[in-house]
Specification:
mainly alpha; two-stranded antiparallel ribbon; 3 helices; about 40% helix
Amino acid sequence: MTTGPKLRLGKTLVPGVLAVVLFGMMALITLNTGFSTMAGFPEGISITSEIGYAMLDYTALQSTEGAIGDTEPFLISFLLIAIVLDAALDASLVLAKREEAGEPVTALASQADSRPSGGDAAATDGGENR
């Protein structure tokens, strides 16, 4: 027969309480923030090209009439997303790495040594028998 979970009191309860308090603060901030009405982009202007021109510092190519001014905040968020995605990819590679007995294991490695043990076998390492 299994027993139910038990509540641990003391120092182990502190991180959980801090997480609940942090969640409550973030919820209050989100609920009390006033968002202005959304506005679309002008017709005939591509936000993608404007961000690209800002990224490559081609201010002369940016549109002037009805232009989307100050596209640098878009550029900053684009770069931050790129950094976060790169860090996530690196973390996934680190987490996917396997080790057996302290040695790294490659993804396509065979479990047994497949080299022939006899001296009569054909040498495939440039003609040398070892």
